[in-house]
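Hi, here's the filled form for the chain we discussed.

Project: internal
Contact: R.S.
Residues: 254
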Amino acid sequence: MRNRVQLVRVLLVVCFFGLWELGSRAGWLDPIFFGRPSAIFWDFGKMVVSGEMFYHAWVTLEESLIGFGLGAVLGVILAFALAASPFWAQVLDPIIFLLYGIPRIALAPLFILWFGLGIASKVVFAFVLVLFLVFFNTFAGLKGVDRDMVDAIKVMGASRGQLLRKVIFPAISPWVMAGLKSGVGMSLLGAIVGEYVGGNAGLGWMINSAAGLFETTRVFSALLALGLLVLGVNQILNWLEARLLKWRPKTGLM
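And the returned structure, exactly as it came back:
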């Protein structure tokens, strides 16, 4: 089954790029606007060999990882704090939703103005995007913990630490992991948008610069690097999820 899935996946990718190449060479797609896969892979290879692609990919990865880490940690802490204090949860509920409802993409120019063109503005932007995702997922998980079970374990004399380790963490871990997996993409988006609006390095800056010069091939090269970056980080999270949640029974629609 696994080999079959891999085979179909590879065939789909090959067919996609094959049709794209065919359309470009046959004149159905204008290479100026749509590029050509062979030229994109060649350009990507050149940038990998020169090390330029690694440099820009690392800049973007560094910004997104710092923002992701800060947003994930603070999101979990905030969720635990509000779950432990229903009063403050009610007080802050409309404020949190107000902040969440603000289109954060529109804040990018302000972050550039406040934190400059360096790494700080991109980190803050990635942080803001990740914070709410992790917070809402963790908070939903905490609200879903079986209250009767918690009370029963308290009656049995379990300490606070045992309650957290044996009941609460296992119960919310799928929710937290779902928030983290969603946050990875958003942290990269935050770093890319920050570089796009104001930066001098990174994949977002590369895309913006190449688009300004109508270098479609270079734009797709940067997008290819970004896609591989997301794929790699997602594989790491899948590996982590498989080990942290190995107790969870496998489910499937078929």
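Let me know if anything looks off before we file it.
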